[in-house]
Amino acid sequence: MANNTPQLGMIISIFKDLSIRHEMINDFIVGSPAELGAARPLLFPYLWLDYDSSVISGAVNSAAQTITYVMSVAIMDKIKKGDSNYDNILSDTHYILTTIIAEMSQHQYYANMNIKLDGDITFTPAQEFSDDNSNGWVATFRLKVPMRYTYCNSPIEPITGYQTAYQDNI
Fold it and tell me: Cα–Cα distance between 162 and 23 in angstroms, integer?
């Protein structure tokens, strides 16, 4: 049942890998903002990922169908009350997000996997993002991937009593 459609788990793994390889990120978390720091204290700055929706596009009977994963991606850093490093944190976290976008839009790995950033990416500053007094940027990513599922490679039993006639052009 092999197909190479990148699924949500793979997309999450990509962001986790980015957080490990990026020299300016110290932690990674997936989930709603309410869950931040609930399981364990986070190391700053951290990459936070939350998935918003997915959209399947393309004609139903077309080989050009795609899945677009819409997700919130944030880079957050700690600010101490009364400190004047707010502008530095915004600058650093914006830079980190920008470098992630640069890798995802330029690296051959993503091109080979047909993973594309779709449309504009809007950054929104976040102040006191969670109970940990973190600040940074939240961006909306739209990752478009090819949908390569077919009835031949899906875990669905064949329709009883029906046979597919294969032609030479398949």
Answer: 56
